[in-house]
């Protein structure tokens, strides 16, 4: 009788290695979690790549966002402006056109503040959303202290020479002094010191003119001028006012008092006074 050969129950070398590999924690984790994740991710990617699916998602998100943003507690109903006059307030509302009511999510206070600060009459501004749906704008306006006469017209300027706003005519601000000339606004601090020093002149003082961006002329009524030096202008003006208090120099028929040379001040008479003086000399021989 022929003996039947039995199969070796021991696994082959490769089978044994595969079984050991399948028992390692990393492989088991990959089969339990990694493969399902890759399949799910692939299916989701394919589904989201569909344009109709993307449009539906965008519409759903937009609807959900709108439902939140349009809630009453997030709506801004008006703009309140403090610190500005009526003219400036209207200019701000024109520069920042908003259609109220508007959601606070659609407002950018930083951008609004930057827009308001760019306006010449505004020195500083702050913008915030107050409880109750109010867009609060607080303004620190530039305070005009003088009128700068330029070839283009009259402009109000503040203490640093910054432009505030143009004005149509001088009579709108009779309380402010007038300065003119090249570079006058850049030296408004010196101009105001001269205005203060010239206070004893009263209504005779008409304004100041900057010459060559170097020095000032004080303009009086009757077309009189006091020509000041580039240095020590305030002291020179004070000397003229003191002299006028003693001898009433400025009440005489003179056109110019030239103080540009400290050691040689000169006085220029008007044409009528010069002609009269020459006539008197001719009628009075020997008169010096």
Number of beta-strand segments: 14
- Morphology call: elongated
What's the overall average pLDDT, rounded? 84
Biggest β-sheet: count, sense, barrel?
9 strands, mixed
Please identify the structural class as seen in this structure.
Answer: alpha/beta
Estimate the helix proportion, in percent.
Answer: 25-40%
Characterize the structure shown.
The protein is of the alpha/beta class. Helix content is 38%, strand content 24%. It has eight helices and 14 strands. The strands form three sheets. A nine-stranded mixed beta sheet has the order 8-7-6-9-10-11-12-13-14. A three-stranded mixed beta sheet has the order 2-5-4. Strands 1-3 form a two-stranded antiparallel ribbon. A hairpin with a 7-residue loop joins strand 13 and strand 14. Helix 6 runs parallel beside helix 7. The mean pLDDT is 84.
Would you spell out the secondary-structure blueprint of this structure?
Elements: H1 13-22, H2 25-48, H3 51-69, E1 75-76, E2 78-82, H4 86-95, E3 102-103, H5 109-117, E4 122-130, E5 134-141, E6 146-150, E7 153-157, E8 163-167, E9 178-181, H6 188-197, E10 205-211, E11 215-220, E12 225-227, H7 233-247, E13 254-258, E14 266-269, H8 271-283
Parallel strand pairs: 2-5, 6-9, 9-10, 12-13
Antiparallel strand pairs: 1-3, 4-5, 6-7, 7-8, 10-11, 11-12, 13-14
Helix pairs in contact: 6-7
């Amino acid at each position: 009788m022929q003996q039947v050969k039995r199969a070796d129950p021991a696994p082959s070398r490769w089978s044994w290695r595969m079984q050991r590999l399948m028992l390692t924690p990393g492989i088991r984790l990959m089969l339990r979690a990694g493969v399902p994740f890759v399949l799910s991710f692939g299916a989701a990617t394919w589904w989201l790549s569909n344009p109709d699916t993307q449009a539906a998602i965008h519409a759903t998100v937009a609807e959900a966002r709108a439902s939140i943003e349009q809630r009453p507690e997030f709506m801004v109903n008006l703009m309140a402006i403090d610190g500005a006059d009526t003219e400036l307030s209207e200019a701000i509302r024109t520069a920042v056109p908003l259609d109220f009511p508007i959601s606070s999510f659609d407002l950018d206070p930083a951008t609004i503040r930057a827009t308001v600060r760019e306006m010449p009459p505004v020195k500083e501004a702050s913008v915030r959303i107050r409880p109750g749906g109010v867009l609060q704008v607080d303004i620190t306006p530039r305070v005009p202290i003088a009128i700068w006469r330029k070839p283009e017209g009259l402009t109000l300027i503040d203490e640093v020479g910054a432009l505030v706003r143009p004005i149509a005519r001088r009579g709108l601000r009779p309380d402010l002094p007038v300065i003119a000339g090249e570079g006058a606004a850049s030296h408004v601090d010196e101009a105001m010191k001269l205005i203060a020093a010239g206070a004893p002149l009263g209504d005779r003082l008409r304004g100041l003119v900057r010459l060559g961006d170097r020095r000032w002329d004080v303009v009086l009524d009757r077309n009189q001028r006091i020509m000041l030096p580039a240095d020590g202008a305030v002291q020179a003006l004070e000397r003229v006012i003191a002299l006028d208090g003693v001898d009433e120099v400025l009440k005489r028929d003179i056109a110019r008092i030239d103080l540009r040379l400290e050691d040689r001040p000169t006085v220029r008479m008007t044409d009528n006074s010069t002609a009269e003086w020459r006539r008197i000399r001719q009628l009075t021989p020997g008169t010096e």
